[in-house]
Target: FAD-binding protein
Amino acid sequence: MTLNPATPDFANQLSAILPDGVLRDIEPRYLEEPRGRFNGQAGVLALPQTVDEVATLVRSANAARVPVVPYGGGTGLVCGQVMPDGPAPLLISLERIAAIRGVYPQENVLVAEAGAILADVQTAAQGANRLFPLSLASEGSAQIGGNLSTNAGGVNVLRYGNTRELCLGLEAVLPNGEIWHGLSRLRKDNTGYDLRGLLIGAEGTLGVITAAALKLSPVPAVRGTAMFVVPSAQAALDLLSFARDQLGEAVSAFELIHRQGLEFLAETLPQLRQPFERAPEWCVLIELGLSRGQDPEQALADLFEAAVGDGCALDGVIAQSETQRNELWTVREQIPEANRLIGSVSSHDISIPLSAIPEFIARGGEAIAALGAFRINCFGHLGDGNLHYNVFPASGKSREDYDAQRSEVKRAVHDLVHQMGGSISAEHGVGRLKVEDVERYGDPVRLAAMRAIKQALDPNGIMNPGAVLKV
Amino acid sequence: MTLNPATPDFANQLSAILPDGVLRDIEPRYLEEPRGRFNGQAGVLALPQTVDEVATLVRSANAARVPVVPYGGGTGLVCGQVMPDGPAPLLISLERIAAIRGVYPQENVLVAEAGAILADVQTAAQGANRLFPLSLASEGSAQIGGNLSTNAGGVNVLRYGNTRELCLGLEAVLPNGEIWHGLSRLRKDNTGYDLRGLLIGAEGTLGVITAAALKLSPVPAVRGTAMFVVPSAQAALDLLSFARDQLGEAVSAFELIHRQGLEFLAETLPQLRQPFERAPEWCVLIELGLSRGQDPEQALADLFEAAVGDGCALDGVIAQSETQRNELWTVREQIPEANRLIGSVSSHDISIPLSAIPEFIARGGEAIAALGAFRINCFGHLGDGNLHYNVFPASGKSREDYDAQRSEVKRAVHDLVHQMGGSISAEHGVGRLKVEDVERYGDPVRLAAMRAIKQALDPNGIMNPGAVLKV
Model:
């Protein structure tokens, strides 16, 4: 199917049927992405204010066979939001469709429009004494529509699930320009295929999400945070099992940190206070969210004592104040910034079946060592089996020194992940960056089914072409 | 697309390429369903032992344009498992593909084949000191494949979600007879469309689920059970909010019970011990699952005291022993049996946005009263907004006396549910019983998308024709 560019003529057609102010000059920020890998392009930029305007835009694009790229906060890391080649697309930014339409505390539901900033959704939930648990580094600028389209992960997946699990219903414009009114606030609705789950994670290739009914949770009455030194990655897993046996769902986050990350922090952000005098080989950050009447410091102290007895903890720091909690979290949250300052050869957002992680770390280290001298910073959401496995230049070398080796490093990591039953994209999605990898490693029967679904819902192939599936 | 019956010739074709013992004589039990509404038919019955045999069966049926009905435990309540008319189908029972393939306690994952009985899955999880939380009345005979195909609900959805939320990956035979190897044990895998979520709840119309990787949870260390009398349905909701504020996710179940249900119990099962001397208008059954070191009786006593102070509880019984816990649960679990013995005019498995439930109960009562003299037993999973809203003959009358009114009663209930943003099938699915209702009340854009997906994945329309979508 040949697509046509969004030309000035097409823009004129749209102007005639849309209110003033919907079509805008294309600012460069809409064509950039955080990693600077791709430069986007656009023929027309639209900032609709209503769902009907989105429908008009998509319907017109479908009739004219013009590609459509939906645009949220622009924080995606796999280039789903920038279309670097092919006919110049119509870019639809949802930023003006951003209201919190309703908060229903008794139902534990909040209805937000796609352009609402994630942090604002969190705040609206807090205002009703509820928790919207999705939390990730870009929450100050990411939009909930983008979080949904990419099925975002973040630090609370262990307890609360991925974005797909946090959504009850959707309103969306399908590729034919029709509006699906599916903003159900129901926990249970078993009346046919899960179109909601299908659009979530489709990265704009099956339609434009315009609003969502989101699940809220009770706010844990008290929180506790600790960092435990563990003798090995296996011990970290044992500690996780142990913590969940003792504390159940109260374990909200369980983050693995490697010495390399702490050393990068010391090197690039020396003002940052570190919890241990000597950086340990492995440590974990544990966050508990407990109900009323429970004592988080005591719970963590009991856990520590038992873990030491069991050989799965060596040392530990339990936060005694909000300041100390923030300090511990800052260490975890600044690791990506330290990584950025060092400059990786290749970064990987992978997941591995939990029990295979120690073996993966061992075999990954060997595979990378076989390719040359590198430093590896392996850290992340251990509770979800989601590691950020990032490979860096040896000390004294720079990212550019390894330009020739980048693809073999990436290939070695992804081959191993695939062999061990893991995923080459745990939480960032496919976008355009990982389309080839999904083709290489994906189950062919599933890929064929995905293509059939894409063809069925978007026969002209206008929605975000080149993302998720090869054109 | 015209389909052909599964003839003796077709059976002979299959015999030639399958091991002995796969094709069986058709016993009547495969053609019946629990409510006796439909009589099924079948041309050939197959009991494959391997996924490859399922693939061979489906591939052959697809080539011959023979309809396929997948068969699990046969406990479905909406007739998805029986095809009463059209060309006689190939019935594929999964009962011999029933192994627990693996338990991964450290990952909180269990891999089960479709034919495994739900109770056996629960037991296998318990054996690894883990909880598989799906729990429903038919768990002793329902198979996990059927639970997945119907996205079953049950009593623990409030805390743990529907079956879809309890599944990480699937192995399935798609309508073209190809096997999707998607048994991922990963919590996070963001590499394309959610085929898993689409097959779950598709009731066998998009393929045959043959195995699943299931999510396990920590076993709550201690449990507590109580029944509180509440002054109104609104107070029951207030109590639920209150309980979740105090106890967070520890509230595992929150079941609403109406006086009518207790009176039916007294009438039909008089030997059953009831918790209150005089049946209250409304009461709720509360189940807590707490972590180590917490005291469930104390937690329930605190909740009761606070709830009385707040005006949302009037009286209460807190179980002090396992025997008392079982007694309270027996009351709840025997209500459907009492209903069956009384004989309903019309039963409805509906859900309503939580905050609209009191209004629904009031308006539903008025709508039914306008149609004549009836008794209403409204009970169910209040925490999920899922009510079993069952309408019974007035005292002294029988079900048959209302035969002429049955459809208008059903229509009145469903119209009101739809008006109030609810679902006409909360947990039982669509099957064949509710196809017309889904056509009437469903969002037309969603229905069109469902049809497009069905056509894309099953172009010959062989999979469970007549279920979920009109042929």
